[in-house]
């Protein structure tokens, strides 16, 4: 399984979750876990996804998600899970 962590942060607007999940679904990326909150009008979401069956390579997916974030006015960041796992072993 190839896992990644996706974070989405920005001003809350209608459709953020829908747009991100639609992109992931269209490219065969499975959402394993999701958490989202809105604090004082600011949207924050963290997702754990499995991109093993994705039809794009990881770098292209990262770039596409960043572009999507620009389109909808939020910052989207996607990182491989092993970055987080190795950080906690140091």
TrEMBL record:
Domain (ACT): residue spans on this chain: 5-79
HAMAP family tied to this protein: UPF0237
Listed PANTHER family: UPF0237 PROTEIN MJ1558
Family assignment from sequence similarity: Belongs to the UPF0237 family.
Stored InterPro entries: ACT-like_dom_sf (IPR045865), ACT_dom (IPR002912), UPF0237/GcvR_regulator (IPR050990), UPF0237_ACT (IPR022986)
Protein's organism: Bifidobacterium jacchi
NCBIfam families recorded: PRK00194.1
Protein name: UPF0237 protein EHS19_06135
SUPFAM superfamilies hit by this protein: ACT-like
């Amino acid at each position: 399984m190839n896992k990644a962590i996706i974070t989405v942060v920005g001003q809350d607007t209608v459709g953020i979750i829908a747009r991100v999940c639609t992109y992931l679904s269209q490219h065969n990326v499975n959402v394993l876990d999701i958490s989202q909150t809105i604090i004082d009008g600011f949207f924050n979401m963290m997702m754990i996804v499995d991109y093993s069956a994705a039809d794009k390579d990881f770098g292209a997916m990262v770039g596409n998600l960043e572009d999507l974030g620009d389109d909808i006015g939020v910052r989207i960041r996607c990182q491989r899970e092993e970055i987080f796992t190795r950080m906690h072993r140091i």
